[in-house]
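Predict the 3D structure for this chain.
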Amino acid sequence: MLTTTAMTPDAARAQQPALIELLRDAVESGASIGFLVPFNPALAEKFWADMIADVAARRRVLLAAYDDGILVGTAQLALAERENSLHRAEVQKVLVHTRARRRGIALMLMQALETAAHESGRTLLVLDTCAGSDAEYLYQRCGYTAAGRIPNYALFPDGALCTTVLYYKQLDATNGSR
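Done. Predicted structure below.
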């Protein structure tokens, strides 16, 4: 059975090996998420420790997807903190393990992110992704609007440059989607 839930800092710490494995799988399968190959587990451990600290400080929401209790995906919502941007959040690191893809898990995570955004009083979501990626098609299916493209903005894990597309979605203040 597939479920999604917001991870507490303690739950994330307990799941840190599985979180590192999820990140490794994403990087080694070509996702442009800030890491290069060869995958460095020490960098991944620091990354997750920083993310967990952000969750504890309420600067970030970390969602997890489970298949019969096994972690198969995560997604993050980075909450803007400046006084003039408290209505906004950034969708980050939507990851689904390769063994669990094509089952609607990423869509479930995106819907859960929108609910979390609504609960946090956020009405504008932004994100970026590599042009032509599977993630780009997911975001389009979820109703995100392309705001622009930046050529040669980020690197794929193998070091090749990719064009990044910036997206946004305006949420309805009453129910979290539009």
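The helical segments are 9-14, 16-28, 41-56, 105-119, 134-141.
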